[in-house]
Amino acid sequence: MDGFVVRWASARLILRSPVSVGFCRGMGVCLLVMLALAVVAWGQTAQELEDIFWQEVVCERTREVEAYLKEYPSGTYVAKARACLAAIARRVEAEEALALDRQTIIWVQRGLAALNYPVGVPDGQLRQVTRTALLQWQEARGLGATGYLTSAQVDRLTAAGRAEAVRQLEEAERRQAARAARQQAQAQAQDTEAALDLDRQARIRVQQGLMSLDYPVEVADGLFGPTTRLALQNWQRAKGFTATGYLTSEQATALIEAGGQRQAAEEVEQRAAAEAERRRAEEAERQQAQETARQREANELVNTMVWSSCESRQGHSGWGCRRGERAAAMTGLSIRFTSASRFIWGNTK
Q: Which residue among 91, 108, 142 closes a domain?
């Protein structure tokens, strides 16, 4: 029973110790490690558990050393633990003796950030996030992971911070110079195009040239708005020119020539369309004339037949036929003969 109590208490000790919990909070992997330690602890003696506990302690970490002393105030490794705390105290005193001012700490923080150990916004305060970054940097370089600064480390990190600041300054200057160069080139390009003194027709040809080369503009109206400038930039970039969006003499000549070819092609298309329309109109006029001629022939035939019918009934010339009878006969026959003639003419085309 006593062995069970010891094992259970030891398992609880490992599970709730800062070594297991304080530095692994919120991490699933650490929870698995703690569970494994608890399983191992179940079958270990008290001394074995103390040995395991001490093996997990990092001497440079105050909280871990203090956690060991709290759980094992008379333990096997008490002297070593107190020596660790004394060493930590000396490091703290050594850092305090440096009398680091706010600006120096900011340079240290910038140096850590430049070396990919983020500290948030450099504020000149050695808070936990800066201590953690410093600890990681010290561990990576084998400097003794204390989380506290030495004079040599301050110099190294300050130098890294200043170098990064110089790099950023040079990069900003390069960007500013490039921006100024672009602005100057843009102004020169505008002056070059203005000196060409292109009239409206030439500008229209330029826009037509862009359109013919598959660089669309909204409308070829001779006005160089944003769409035309963008199309011109894309064309210049594709041709290996500086993409200013403004014309040089060479570029204007090339696009005007392309625009003239497009206009010539459009004129050919327009002439072809006009010719086709003229032919359609002539054909419609011809058909209308034929229809009128057929109607006239049909009417003449009806008139002849009506007169003949009237004369045969009256026995004398058509002048003796009554007007009403003649008109009625003409109307009926005209309708029938018109229908018949259309049928005949339609089938003989």
A: 91
